[in-house]
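HUMAN: Mind making up another protein with tokenized structure?

ASSISTANT:
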Amino acid sequence: MRYLLVDDEPLVLRDMGRTVKEILPGEEIFCAGNCVDALRYVEKGRVYVAFLDIDMPEMNGLELAKHLKDLQPDINIVFVTAYSEYMGEAWDLYVSGYLLKPVQKEAIKKSLKNLRFLPSREEGKLNIQCFGNFECFYHGEPVKFERVKSKEFFACLIDQRGAKVGTNELRTLLFEEDVDSVKKRSYIRTLASDIRKTLKGCNLENVLMHERDCYYVNLSKVDCDYFRYLNGDTAAVNSYHGEYMKQYSWAEMTVGSLEKS
């Protein structure tokens, strides 16, 4: 995996680079002394973790983090700074860590164990992120659904962990209404067709399953942080920070069960 370190102070960058290389031998680690080089590096390929100084000329670390997330939404950002007053604004960006200089080796190790976004464990599967916003990735690239409701439809099925979900339940969750209609049933079929088309474009056949009046997900085709959390995976447990599919109000019920667990 690729790691990025950004700091405008050469000596600090050198020492940080040495420490990270000691912790992660064999990994690709790029040290950038300015934001332009950092952005170019991320444009060339996916980065797992970016350690960013905040107080830099021309573009500060907070602004750089926003640009990096535009390029790669699931990049793990860890701020490294001598100032604590940026902490509130930093957490608003849903970062994975905030380290105060001078940074100790153990602090870096701890931040790497508590990352928000985890890499896919199994190649060839659809990688699903439930913690934070609901997102889907394939080979590290975001999967883009044609309709917003198609993505939410798929999120509903992931939330049910392979259980069959009837059209009536989907209608209530997606449209928050109990009125059954031919129009709504037709639209749900359209959404299902959209999901299949999107996943087929990623060479992911047979992820969305349909049986009679129900839909469900073939769990053998997906890798999901939520599922790994429930199985006791340490990295997945550490990546949960109280946020689950936060763009969907119906997901609050699952948040409650996660808090209890």
